[in-house]
Design brief:
With 112 residues, this protein is mainly alpha-helical. 67% of the residues lie in helices and 5% in strands.
């Protein structure tokens, strides 16, 4: 079982939850909620650092429908949890926090 930002299930179930978030009207309406929160920016920096260091250490691929991005988040559990808490503390919906973390993770895969 995988638990990322309150979503629990297999990797595919978490990916399906992420796809549902992407399709939601809230995503279309969001304009970067909470991005200016100092705590969130600090947590994003910590998460990015961990993700970048882990991205070269496993069999991760940037073009696999998000599976590697979610697996990479699981490789940095403390940083991912801190980002989730900071994101929620900034008033961002949990689904959007997961989406933002997945984007950061995908970026780490693309830049390794």
């Amino acid at each position: 079982m995988t638990r990322i930002f309150g979503y629990c299930g297999s990797g595919l179930a978490v990916a399906a939850a992420l796809a549902a978030v992407l399709a939601s009207p809230a995503v279309a309406q969001t304009t970067g909620q909470g991005v200016k929160s100092p705590a969130m920016l600090a947590a994003k920096g910590t998460l990015s650092g961990c993700l970048l260091s882990q991205a070269g250490q496993g069999a991760y691929f940037p073009a696999d429908s998000g599976r590697s991005a979610l697996a990479l988040l699981r490789a940095c559990p403390d940083a991912a949890a801190a980002y989730g808490q900071a994101c929620a503390g900034a008033g961002v919906e949990p689904g959007l926090c997961l989406l933002q973390a997945a984007v950061v993770s995908e970026h780490a895969l693309d830049t390794r």
